[in-house]
Amino acid sequence: MTASNPKSTPTADGKRNTTLDLAASSLRDINEILQSAEGGEFRVVNPRGAHALAAGLEGDVDVTIDGHVGYYCGGMNKKARISINGNAGTGVAENMMSGRVHVRGDASQSAGATGCGGLLVIDGNASARLGISLRGLDIVVRGSIGHMAAFMAQAGNIVVLGDAGEALGDSIYEARLYVRGKVASLGADCVQKEMRDEHRRDLRRLLDAAGCGPEVLVDDFKRYGSARRLYHFHIDNIGSY
Amino acid sequence: MSADKDRWIHTPPRESATFDRHTIAEIHRAAATGIYDIRGFGAKRKLPHFDDLLFLGASISRYPLEGYREKCGTNVVLGTRYAKTPIEIKIPITIAGMSFGSLSAPAKEALGRGASAAGTSTTTGDGGMTEEERAASTLLVYQYLPSRYGMDPDQIRKADAIEIVIGQGAKPGGGGMLLGQKISDRVAKMRTLPAGIDQRSACRHPDWTGPDDLEIKILELREITKWEKPIYVKVGAARPYYDTALAVKAGADVVVLDGMQGGTAATQDVFIEHCGLPTLAAIRPAVKALTELDMHRKVQLIVSGGIRNGADVAKALALGADAVSIGTAALIALGDNHPRWEEEYAKIGTTAGCFDDWHEGRDPAGITTQDPELTKRLDPVEGGRRLANFLSVMTLECQTIARANGKSHVHNLEPEDLVALTIEAAAMAQVPLAGTDWIPGANSR
Ligand SMILES: Cc1cc2nc3c(=O)[nH]c(=O)nc-3n(C[C@H](O)[C@H](O)[C@H](O)COP(=O)(O)O)c2cc1C
Known about the structure:
The structure holds two protein chains of two kinds.
Chain A: E1 7-10, E2 16-21, H1 27-36, E3 41-45, E4 62-66, E5 81-85, E6 100-103, E7 119-122, E8 135-141, E9 155-160, E10 176-179, E11 190-193, H2 197-209, E12 222-226
Parallel strand pairs in A: 2-3, 3-4, 4-5, 5-6, 6-7, 7-8, 8-9, 9-10
Antiparallel strand pairs in A: 1-2, 10-12, 11-12
Chain B: H1 3-9, H2 21-33, E1 38-39, E2 53-55, E3 76-78, E4 87-89, E5 93-95, H3 105-118, E6 121-123, H4 131-136, E7 139-144, H5 153-158, E8 161-165, E9 176-178, H6 185-190, E10 199-201, H7 210-224, E11 231-236, H8 240-250, E12 254-258, E13 267-268, H9 269-274, H10 279-292, E14 300-304, H11 310-318, E15 323-326, H12 328-334, H13 342-347, H14 372-375, H15 380-404, E16 418-420, H16 423-429
Parallel strand pairs in B: 5-15, 6-7, 7-8, 8-11, 11-12, 12-14, 14-15
Antiparallel strand pairs in B: 1-13, 2-16, 3-4, 9-10
Bound molecules: flavin mononucleotide.
């Protein structure tokens, strides 16, 4: 870890708070430090849109990134809590297993793609294909989302406080979608569904976890999910494919 | 009416070349069911193939090596471009990616055992890695597919190499479909989907499109695995010259090129038979791209699609491949389409040698099924032994040819050792038509 020269200062609880500077160190060196850390707090400065930053983290670490990041930030994250003070490029938190990724700005395409667990919070808007092939990750977007969100989403929840673009939930499997604003159109096999108490509870839990206050009311949301009509290939559904 | 006159009224039955019996039966089938035919196996039509090439052997100007005495190397190192830990296989033949789901767990284990005994690698497939397969395989390549079913970073870290799948030769541009009958509870759990439903595998990756994105995806996979593991890019043979160049540009260590004869677990027959380039036609353009980029032998090329014996291996290597990969032949070595199951093949309307309904999960040989009773029929130890035998025969055959052409390593085989039996094969493989010095289409791409 020679190139990075990380500056460490002890925090109140005795953990080390380490600053990593992408202007001074290579991506590999910084990722190596983050990937091999079992705990602690890190601040990454000068990310300058770097790709694959803080990807593949395994430990129980807190990472704050000051600035915009490129593709796949926090990709395949296992336990880390990653906060991005900026916008995120394509595939932020893709295939995340657990932990938490928080984008303070906007997120580009395929945010949270194929995510398996944990929580992804996007304070701004998210572009197309949010939560594509989702497999258990929960996503909360405070702004609006682009088209084809939750395409083929298998499991997990997506909460959108703003509007959703076209073809929401196309070919969706068992994932649950909650949208407060307008939905431009629903994709094949995606339908509005009844909000029952279990869904209200679930939604409240997700809103709380994402830091949305009580002023965001569960009853303002509509729920969408699979009509399960395309679960078996059937010739009479040919128009849907 | 005299018998003689009758003869002239009724001509003997004549089959139409255009509407042959298979075509007529297919129209009847389509009219009865309203659905296209889905099946396993690879292209069944006759295509220009390795059989259309011959090796010249030694002569006055080329001297041969002694069989059984003089060494003829067969090892291949994969991933020398960027990976910190390239992998070395002892034979130039690997086992292609075939999913757990399409194949039973014992079949996957048998592939691992056979490959390991022969000193080569096997490959996961759609649906992720099983414990049995990891344990049975000394060298295991992890497929990173569009569906990402079962994708888990810990499994990537446990693998010896990563193969990003863009496409397959049997269906370049097609996704996958695993019918509900084959979705056992275990398969469903690995894929995070309800049991018993049809599972579509996406045809495009969810978080990247195009060569520039691919470069970033490769960077991410390298970062996640600390730049240790070789990264392969697998493409179906469609535009091999450009695809190879783009894979190299995106940072691949290895390019896997799968021709249209390549096997599949379940694809529309129309797709299998009518899309893609024959393996024979795909190799030279890929090698040309590598050579032009000064990457031949630096980025390794693995070729697959209809490889059946050591002669096919030798021919693929002579055309410039570093290694080959086998799917269908490996399943046949495990016992697929074996005459011992003839009675049962007959019951499901087929015969040994023609069984291709691998998608239905009723495989009498217990290979392409998840049925607990049928899967018991394949003993992974015995299956592994059979595959190891087959790999060893292929390697010996390849060496026999290489020695006869005077090569001390199978990689020294070259296009100059080959001639073609047909004009088509000569043009596709860019070797002379036998007995001439004519290479049709030489100097064109
Ligand atoms: C049963 C079966 C399952 C397959 N599953 C996959 C898969 O999951 N991923 C993939 O890239 N290719 C898959 N393939 C294609 C093989 O990896 C390989 O490209 C092909 O079998 C090579 O051609 P060959 O069968 O003529 O040897 C599968 C092939 C078969 C026969």
